[in-house]
Amino acid sequence: MSALVTREFFLGFVKLHILHHAARGPVYGLALIRELGSHGYSLSPGTLYPTLHALERAGYLTSRPATVDGKRRRLYRATPGGRRVLAEARRKAHQLMDELDERG
Q1: Domain encompassing residue 51
Q2: What torsion, rounded to 10 degrees, do the Cα atoms 56, 57, 60, 66 define?
Q3: SS3 69
Q4: How far is CA 75 from the centre of its chain?
Q5: Which of 22, 53, 86, 95 satisfies CB 3.0 to 4.6 Å to 78 for a cystine?
Q6: pTM, two decimal places
Q7: Running along the chain, 104 residues long, what does each successive block of 10 average in pLDDT?
């Protein structure tokens, strides 16, 4: 499998992770890089920030500047549309996992 195909699939998972965490509360880039790293994703800021900006442009995230631990950060939260997409993605993921788990 080519690296491009793998990257495209994993980027979809990364987007769902971002929406999941942004639906639970405000998140910022470095914290997301660390969180995603704990799940085995190695993301650079050059990959994460364009993804965050694309999700924001699509209306799935909203952001605002804030100070966190004395540092300027941009906090991202899921919008109602982002929460709807996340809920639909969960349903689809459960269906897919059921199919992948079928034996025979």
Answers
A1: 3-101
A2: 20
A3: coil
A4: 14
A5: 22
A6: 0.86
A7: 73 94 96 94 93 97 95 97 96 89 66
